[in-house]
Each structure stands twice: as C-alpha cells, then as structure tokens.
Amino acid sequence: MKSSYLLILATLVTFIQCTSPEKEKDKTQLDLQIAEMIKQISADSIKSHVEHMVSFETRHSLSDTVSDDRGIGAARRWVASKFLQFRQQSNANMTVELDPYIIEGGSSRVPYAVTMKNVVATLKGTDPNDDRVILISGHLDSRNSDPLDSINAAPGANDDASGVAVVIELARVLSQHQYPCTLIFMAVQGEEQGLLGARHMAVKMRQENVNLIAMLNNDIVGNSVASETNDKNDKTIRIFSEMIPAIESEQDTKNRAAMKSENDSPSRQLARYIKETGEAYDFGFSATINMRPDRFLRGGDHTPFLQNGYTAVRFTVFNENYTQQHQNVRDEDGIEYGDKIKFMDFDYAANVARMNLATMASLAKAPTAPVSVNMQVTLSNITYLSWEAPISGPKVKGYNVLIRETYQPFWEKKIYVEDTKVELPYSKDNYFFAVQAVGEEGHLSQIVIPVPKR
Questions:
Q1: Distance CA 165, CA 137 (A)
Q2: What is the model's pLDDT at position 28?
Q3: First to last CA, the chain
Q4: pTM
Q5: Is the dihedral of CA 285, 312, 314, 255 positive or negative?
Q6: Which domains can be identified in the chain, with CATH numbers?
C-alpha cells in the first residue's frame, strides 16, 4: 500500500471522527475585512437609492432621455453620478461609462429605433496577470401592465430599483478596497423589453473574450411578503441556476454524460458557492438553491450570459408579490396594485446585498480555479483525482477535495491536500467529487468537476 494512500486514509479517519457531515457543515475560513464590509452595508442607503430611482416617476426604456428629473435618461445619469461619487471618495481605479447600443425597432416591445445605454462601473484589478472578471447587475428600467406605456407612472421599486440599489451599495463598499481581479457594477436598460441591455453586454464580452467567471443578476430582491397567501419570509433569498449549460462543446456533453453530472453545471456550482460563502458570515440570512434557471413565465438578465457560455445566476426574493409586478398603480376590488416603495423590506434587501458582497469579495481574493481536473476511470473502489495548479492569480496554498453522495444536493465532505493528486477510499460509483483551490488566507476558488480519463 502506498504511503500517500496511508496518509490520506489517516486524514480521512481524523476528519470523520471530528465531524458529522449530517449535523455540522465544514466552516469556511472567514476574512475579517470581508466581515467588516458586510457590516458596512446599510439598509438606509439602499432605501435612499430606491427612493431616488422611484422619484423619476417612470424609467421605461422608451421614456424621456432629456429631462433632468423624469425618465430613463435622468435615471441613467443619476446612477453614473453615484459611481463617480464613490470613485472620488475612495480614489478608486474605477472607470464609469454610459455604454450605448442601438435597438433597430420593429418588434412588439420596441416599435421604433432607439439608443439605449447601460451604466457600467469597472473597478480594475491590481494584478495585470489576473484577467478574471466578476460582474453584478440589476436592471434600471421599469414598466406598467402595458409594456409599451412609457408615459404613466411606473415606480418600479422592487422590480428592479431594489436590484440596482444593491449594485450601487456594493460599488460604494467594495470600491474602498483593491482586488487582484476586476469587478464590474452594472445597471442595465431594456430588461423589460427583452433583456436587451444584458444581451448587449454578454455578446460584447464574448466577442472580446472576457474571462467573466461569475455574473450575479439581482432582480426583484426587496420584498418579503407573497401575494395571495401573505406568507412572509425575510430570511431567505432564492438563487436560480441552470442545470445543463446552454452552451457546451461536444466533448463537454460527452464528459457530462459520462460523469452523470447534470446537477453540477458551473452555474449550479456558483449557486452552491454563494450559499456556503454567504451563510458562513452568519448575519441571519440564508440562500436556497432553486434548481431551475428562472421562474415560470419570466426571464432575467442572467439568461443572455448563460446563452453566451458564461457562469451566471439570479437572486430573487423567496416570496413574490404579483400585485406589484408589471401593474399600473391603482386600487381595484380592495387591492392596491403597483410597485410602490411602501411595499419594500429594506432590511431584507440589505441582507441580499451582504450575500452578494461575501461572494464577490471572496471570489476576487481567491486563487483562480485548478485546471485539467481529471478522474481516473478504472474498476476500483479507490478514486484517483489529479489536476494542475492555476497559472495566474493569487498564490495557491492547497486544494479542497469535495465529496458528496450521488443523491445529495450539497457537498458533504471537504478534504484539504497540498499535492495536485489524491487517492480516495471512496468509490466513484457512489460519490461525486470536485476540486477547488485554497489561497494563502483561506479564500476559496470556483469549484471544478473532474472529467473522466481512462
């Protein structure tokens, strides 16, 4: 028996003796700077941001672009001014732009040609060899019952001033620090007209071959009470993630089929990462992994990124209120309709922001993911994994080998090693495996599923 096998077996015995995976999750190493940033997230700031966006009366994508106090144009310029304010306050290496794109018109929701603009703030990374990008987004536009009504009031407090407010708040806090990789804060236009701003950005990034490792879409993240049932949940955010990737190579399809890893897409792994990382900071909030790409009959800005081969997820409230979404402001049959600020839960939105912040900062500080992760396929009850160290990004201290039984949704065991290979006394027929890099300060990279090698 090899000495390496004896060493890992001893490690496993110690791990199993000390930890009951059914009762106690392995604790993520906490970063004191991230913990302090989480405390800086302010429900009052988020409320102020939402109030300001609602004050523009409508932010419909076809509304006024000239006025200083009404319409989408004023809203875009205001968001850009907030990003510029944070850049000046922190002396951050952050660019701010109104990124234009032309929609030719002729469709049911954009009947004539119009120039739309995304508001994009880019906090540049400090390591020139680290090309990773992490993006957080919310959509700035709002709408009424009629998707073409660009005149009447459409406050859009929860859908989606809440998401944009989360983006603004993260820009305020995160821009006070530096990270090896680049962070992008974005408020998109045209979501309600067909995910237009997100599609423009996703296609642009793909054409420029941007190494976008995570896209966090925050859409409807500011209320906690459901319509019809009046159920309240102010402690949980849903994370939607795709199962089978929208785009994968023929070889990726073969690998997925061989590994039976339909529940282990990169976006699904990002959702698991968000849950583990955010909950580790213990601010009284949790994430539930909704194993669908989105809700029924609705779509979101993460979708164009998935369609362009990127890893993306959607944050959305646990309980939705449909009397407030896509509704004209009115009273009817004793029900108050319209997406008004009075229905918001700003403490809830602040906790959503904290979940986003823990994820972005942890990923940004972590090493890049290990590469060429392989699992040797043999008739054996020993599982052999091997991989290569990342060639750029923060220094790697070691690696976590993740293990779960095939019917479990979350990783159950985590074994730390410093080599780039491991022999495990677990049958590949009974368990799924993955590997992630661990930085010198304990930050964890993305999770990588092995591919089969004979």
A1: 10
A2: 59
A3: 22
A4: 0.92
A5: negative
A6: 3-25+368-453 (2.60.40.10), 32-365 (3.40.630.10)
